[in-house]
Amino acid sequence: MKIPQGFVDAKTISIQQRLIMSISGLEKQGKTHFSLTAPDPIAVFSTDIGEEGVVQKFRDKDIAIMYLSKFDEEDSDKAPEEFSKFRTAYLRLLRGKDVKTIVFDTATEIWELLRLARFGKLTQVMPYQYGPVNNEFRSLLREAYSYDKNLILLHKMRPVYINDKRVDRFERSGFGDTGYLVQVNAVSNYEDEEFMLTIEDCRHKPELTGEILEGPLCNFEILKSLVLS
To answer: Could you count the other beta carbons within 10 Å of the beta carbon of residue 204?
Structure first.
């Protein structure tokens, strides 16, 4: 057919050889370890202490860390400047040639930093007020699709409550639309002295849902080969 004005031929769209993914997990379950198996140079935005003791295992890689301060509501006036520092550095890394992989460790707390920067608080914010803040964070994640960079979002997990009663499962903590925006959602675990990564869903290959990468196979390059091959 003749391609209508303003459209592009779908046959000309190629698959970028990079992954944009979310990894959720409880503490000390290998999220940071997995992210550092990705191609270097790696830039990590850290709000956590999870790199200590982990980066030392990857001395053969080029890894740079930017530490972001965490604030509470009492010093929320400092949050706008801190989030601006993060945003400026993140966009510079995406658009530049310095790194191959960008890691948010954790995306949960970077989302909190944005909320604190815009609202001055994390609680008692009305749902209708979230529109601009949601759009701001969403645009940062969407921006990654325009570049040949891996983006790995590490997330804490929170307990699930049904009818005000805690049930025996956990869910990702952070920006609510993350799952829709990334290519792969996964959960990290550490069992029987082995790291494990369970694929929860995959946009490119839905048949990978439930696939478990364990031990030596729990590696970014293995996951990338499964998803993009």
So the answer is: 14
Let me know: does 181 contact 138? Beta carbons within 8 Å. Answer: yes
- What does the mean pLDDT of the chain come to? 94
Neighbours of 170 (CB within 10 A): 15
DSSP state of 16: P
**What CATH number labels 10-228?**
3.40.50.300
State if pTM tops 0.90: yes
Residue 125 burial (CB count, 10 A): 14
H helices present in the chain, as ranges: 31-35, 79-95, 107-119, 131-143, 178-181, 220-228
User: What proportion of the chain, given as a percentage, has pLDDT over 70?
Assistant: 100
Are residues 65 and 51 in contact, defined by beta-carbon separation less than 8 angstroms?
Answer: yes
- The 3-state DSSP class for residue 26 equals coil
Helix (H) or strand (E) holding 81: helix 79-95
Residue 175: name the closest of 203, 140, 128, 126 by CA. Answer: 140
Backbone angles phi, psi at 202, to 5 degrees: -145, 120
pLDDT score of 43: 97
Nearest residue to 104 (alpha-carbon basis) of 125, 96, 112:
112
130: exposed, middle or buried (Cβ count in 10 Å: 0-12, 13-18, 19+) = middle
